[in-house]
Amino acid sequence: MKKITFLIIFLCYSFGYGQDIEYIKKLDTVFVKFKKSVNQTKQGSQDYRFYTIRLGQISDRTCLYFTKPDFNDNSTETAKKYLPRIEKKSFLKKHKKDIVGIDFFQKYGIEKSTYEAFSANSVIYIIDCDEQKNGKIMLYRVLMSSSYRMGE
To answer: Cβ–Cβ contacts within 10 Å for residue 29, how many?
Structure first.
């Protein structure tokens, strides 16, 4: 019985810790977990990607957009920053607290997610769970925008 209680407390603590908005605000790099579903869509090609996370009903007012820009010349310093990163799956465990998913955005809403939690973060990466191969994951540095407009 003690083991079951300990396990439940441990799991609740470990899943809830990384999803704290105050912790996310302090990070300079945040990783957004993306898995294609009804509320998470991806468009584009190898060079240009457009990720959409829909938080509510089908409405343009509840969407977050993450864009991986396309550069004609990948030799520039700016373009090099946006080249995909390939990491081992152990990266997910190491950075567990720095990874947010759709649950985080639904919990805090589009306003807090966009203007509070992510405004201080200088770097945002998408972890594309649909592109896992041979124990490796793909990370794409992205730019974030939302359908939320202040004052509405």
So the answer is: 12
How many Å apart are CA 112 and CA 105, to the nearest integer? 8
Per-residue pLDDT in tens (0 to 9) along the chain, 152 residues: 554 544 444 444 444 444 688 898 888 899 999 999 888 888 887 778 888 888 876 555 678 888 888 777 767 777 788 888 899 999 999 999 999 999 998 898 877 877 777 766 679 999 999 888 888 999 999 988 877 655 54
Question: Which token pair is 7?
Answer: 């396990």
d(CA 19, CA 7): 19
Q: Cβ atoms within 10 A of the Cβ of 66, count? A: 22
Cα separation, 34 vs 53, whole angstroms: 8
Helix (H, G, I), strand (E, B) or coil at 29: strand
Helix (H, G, I), strand (E, B) or coil at 120: coil
Which tokens go with 80? 């090099």
Cα atoms found within 13 Å of the Cα of residue 13, Cβ hemisphere only: 6
DSSP letters for 75-108: TSHHHHHTS-EEEETHHHHHTGGGEE-HHHHHHH
Question: Which pTM was predicted?
Answer: 0.76
